[in-house]
Structures are given as C-alpha cells and as structure tokens.
Design goal:
Blueprint lengths: L1 E2 L15 E2 L2 H8 L4 E2 L18 E4 L5 E3 L2 E5 L2 E3 L13 E3 H7 L28
Antiparallel strand pairs: 1-2, 3-6, 4-5, 4-8, 6-7
Length: about 130
C-alpha cells in the first residue's frame, strides 16, 4: 500500500512522497490490524465511494486515510484507525469534498492528522433589514 505524506526516514524535514509500507508498518501507523482492498475495485459502488476518491476522510475521528484501507470487525468494514468506531463505507467522505470546504488543507492529506471541518460562515445580513 502506498501512503503519501509519510516523512522520509533519516531526513531533517518531512518530504512529501509516496512510500511503500509493509503490513507491520501499516499496523503501527493505524494503531492495529488493517486490511486493504484495491481502491479502484469495489463490490458496491457506494463502498469506498467507487473509483473517484484517492483518500477518504472519516466523519467520526476527523482523520484521512487512503481509499481501500479498513479494519474488518465481524462483518463490518470500519475506519482503519484502531481508536475509531466509524464505518469505512458510511462515515467516510471523499477527501476532495473536505478540501473544497477547507481550502487551506493539503491536496494529499497526512495519515493520522486530525482535519476538523470548519463551521460554515454565517450568511451575510441584508442591508434591507
């Protein structure tokens, strides 16, 4: 599984690049066992939001993860973060939607970082009231 925004090892500053991680490294990153499936292929078009999103954002824990990553809990596919109870197919939203409402967020989200949604701006009051 390629993970973006993982700091380059032995470097003074974090460098954005794709890193190929093994299962043990993925489990350390997400805090427990994770599974992966190809993000471009899904049994249900709703599951993992089809082929359009490279990264998803969990509405429960407010963190992003690569499309296709999940924790298998019984019959459910949950958010890959071990400390989250969100469902990977129900509570996840495409990163592009989160980024659209928060233009200061990066194009590629960092794994493990919290990205809270900003509250919508109040509507402008009309000069006639």
């Amino acid at each position: 599984m390629n993970i973006s925004n993982v700091p380059k090892r032995n470097a003074g500053a974090a460098v954005q690049r794709e890193v190929q991680l093994g299962q043990g490294e993925l489990e350390k990153l997400f805090g427990g066992p994770v599974s992966t499936s190809p993000s471009r292929i899904a049994n249900s078009p709703r599951l993992f939001h089809g082929k359009f999103a490279d990264h998803l954002w969990c509405g429960c824990c407010k963190r992003a993860f690569p499309n296709g990553m999940y924790r298998q809990v019984g019959e459910f596919r949950k958010c890959p973060y071990a400390d989250c109870d969100g469902h990977a197919s129900v509570d996840a939203m495409p990163w592009e939607r989160i980024k659209a409402g928060n233009p200061d967020y990066p194009e590629t989200p960092a794994v493990g970082k919290h990205y809270p949604m900003q509250p919508p701006a109040p509507p402008a009051r009309s000069a006639f009231f």
